[in-house]
Amino acid sequence: MPQVVGRQYKEILKQYLSSQSEEDLYVGQQFSRRFIEKDIAPEDVISIHKNALHDIVPDLRKEVWDSFDFLIEMMIHYGLTLREHQSLIRKQEAIQMEMDVATGVQDTLLKTKTPNLKGLDVGWISKPAKQMNGDYIYFLNHEHEAGVAVADVMGKGIPAALCMSMIKFGMDGLQDENTSPQNVLNIINRIVEKSVDNSMFISMFYGKFDARDSMFSYASAGHEPALYFNAKEQTFSELSAKGLLLGIKPNVVYEERKQKMEVNDFIVMMTDGVTETRTEDGFIDMKTIEKLLLEVSEKPAGAIAEHLYNELSKLQNYRLSDDFTVVIFKKEK
Amino acid sequence: MPQVVGRQYKEILKQYLSSQSEEDLYVGQQFSRRFIEKDIAPEDVISIHKNALHDIVPDLRKEVWDSFDFLIEMMIHYGLTLREHQSLIRKQEAIQMEMDVATGVQDTLLKTKTPNLKGLDVGWISKPAKQMNGDYIYFLNHEHEAGVAVADVMGKGIPAALCMSMIKFGMDGLQDENTSPQNVLNIINRIVEKSVDNSMFISMFYGKFDARDSMFSYASAGHEPALYFNAKEQTFSELSAKGLLLGIKPNVVYEERKQKMEVNDFIVMMTDGVTETRTEDGFIDMKTIEKLLLEVSEKPAGAIAEHLYNELSKLQNYRLSDDFTVVIFKKEK
Amino acid sequence: MNFRSSVEIYTEWDIVAARQLGRNEAKKVGFGTVDQARITTAISELARNIYLYAGKGKIEIERVSEGKMSGIKIIASDEGPGIQDIRKVMEDGFSTSGGLGAGMPGVKRLMDEFKVISEAGIGTTITTVKWLH
Amino acid sequence: MNFRSSVEIYTEWDIVAARQLGRNEAKKVGFGTVDQARITTAISELARNIYLYAGKGKIEIERVSEGKMSGIKIIASDEGPGIQDIRKVMEDGFSTSGGLGAGMPGVKRLMDEFKVISEAGIGTTITTVKWLH
Ligand SMILES: [Mn+2]
Ligand SMILES: [Mn+2]
Ligand SMILES: [Mn+2]
Ligand SMILES: [Mn+2]
Predict the structure, then answer these.
(1) Span A16-35, pLDDT tens digits
(2) D105 and D93 in contact (C-beta within 8 Å)?
(3) CATH number for region D4-131
(4) What is the ipTM of this complex?
(5) Which CATH class for the A3-90 domain?
(6) Chain D residues with beta carbon closer than 8 angstroms to that of A83
(7) What 3-state class would DSSP assign to B176?
(8) B-interface mutation test, from C34, C43, C111, most B Cβ less than 10 A away
């Protein structure tokens, strides 16, 4: 192989020395890429060059050849750095694979079941800005009720995954208890406060729909307000409730509020990745979101969520700057 | 700067061309390292070389100088690969920092409190083989009881951290329930089975000391047996109990066994990173561990754990091939 | 007005023509041999991308100046399919060979300024500048 | 018996002597210019480590053969403090400059075989071989 490479190199060099044409330089440079692919070190290139030149113009002063030997010596450490590069690339690929596995495990472990409740159409979408999602949705289902926690946890990777697991396992433990939004946030707040120091921030919205009286009750731990769409009036209003971020203080009492829902009304819960969509002209405002929701307000909850994501994503040139999560509860007949 | 470098290079090259001595090559090569540190690309080196040679032996045929131009062209992609290397190194450093943060959060979130029970001396040590630990210790304390879960979870990173959080939050939820070893494993097994698919393996030993009757009860989910040291007889025996790894089947009933403890007796719970210590001559056997424990059997539990770690770590040349965890319960007066 | 000239890219031969034009201009601006080679390589990569992925397009070369600085600007444009995921293309390759992605971080490194505008179905324009230091 | 000779490393000058010895032997075995330079560089790194971190030690050079293969073996030994964390030293540096660590992965790459034995307070012996292909 090296001999073949050497012969080819000599031909290209010879050609160039007689023509000095751009074409030969182009051919030479394309050839050099194959050198790199074949792990030919730069010191080898100098040696190949020296031998080729020697064949083409043998009658040069001894200093020229000696100078190439010196140049070879100079290139050895460059060659080593390049080989280190190959090994780093392999390492990086291994990390990538590990991340892929981690994402899969996270999905399995923290999975949640979309409620299937008569009278309620549930749609949601959650897209990470980078590989790992820092937003988390968890559904808590009972016979006549559908509850959902929408949370935005600080950071990514392990810290985020652990915060999510706190929420999941905390809520799993609530199955038989009082699952009023107020009580859910009070309890989760206590778990978080106990487990993490004050430098971890988690915002969370908890909403619950009761099929018996079509009442949506909610509480918020420093989270984005939800949007309530009144189908009859074709108007939007914000559902906000007072409450500190999770884990700041041990005994917070979260405010709980209610909203009665009529058929075709829907409620949009989201994270700040939705409301803080950044375009070239700055942040969008709530009106943009309302306009987009109105366009498809007669569609099923899933389609509304999808539409909102597609349009907001287009507005920011398909590059999310934050994780994007929407959950929609729509009252059906 | 490049001019200074060029002048120095010329001096060294000139010296070499007149002497061809090893010393000059050594000086040249040391010089080349500084080139790399200063981000001087290989194509720059060729150019510097060409200029230096031109100053030293100006009267060479035109082909020589043209050939250097060709060589510069050949080196451009080598230079690019090197610069890519610098950026990969920075990326790697960022990942490292992220890992450090993650380790810290994991420590905070999954922290556990060593029991402080009259009549029981508790010592433990847990050392990761790589940066992240896949072994996990969790203490469950009650008024008259000290319980400990020693687990070895599959993998590292996020998958491992999430498994640990399952165990922690699962056990947190047990505070008021029946905390017999059998019941603890039954419940944790159900949580794990529900949350993960069959490809995740977790082995776990649960041991509980009751200060009222000095009884140590235990159960095991496919975990290493513990070692019981009888101080009066100066003998060791294995404490093993039957049971499947966690998460394989939903309704496993774990075997529970008991061991009465007398003053100065101790029980050593550990992961396979301890028993499967690999030396140059193969794996160590239980006798080695017993011998090491016997040497310090009169010391406090913490010192015994420490001694075991230090000696076994020395045996494998200070390179752990697996995470290493030991928990010792020693009965005091 | 600044000097500006261009080469249409249809065939591999046009890549060579664009390189030649770029090298001549770089020399006139006053770049040394190594920088000439770097600028030429950047043009080469951009032109190859047009040739390989868009089928046809154009390389424009312009001498530029700003205050006391002078330099060379290269504009590569095509009406090809556009770049699907610019973020990905600009990432350092996990492999140095092949693909559109291989070239872009390289071009960015060879030059001083770099900007991509790409729209699906409409095409891609890459503008890049190197200043004489 | 195979030819074997050695250089004691006390001063920087001894590094040059070890290099010279290695290059001569490599040439005699039949290695080409580039491989001569690589073997010499490996010796240089090993000798510098002795000089910088152990104070004194020895480089032995031996021509070796196995079946039809011939090659060169380098043994670097010192009675220095020993290497604390060999794993770390063998890791690809996050920085190419300075420190004992910089050299080791490089030496391993320059040669074909590589083995370290190190004990705290007793010293370090590194044995490395390159075969003529
Ligand atoms: Mn977030
Ligand atoms: Mn956010
Ligand atoms: Mn493990
Ligand atoms: Mn293990």
Answers:
(1) 999 999 999 999 999 998 89
(2) yes
(3) 3.30.565.10
(4) 0.77
(5) mainly alpha
(6) 109
(7) coil
(8) C34
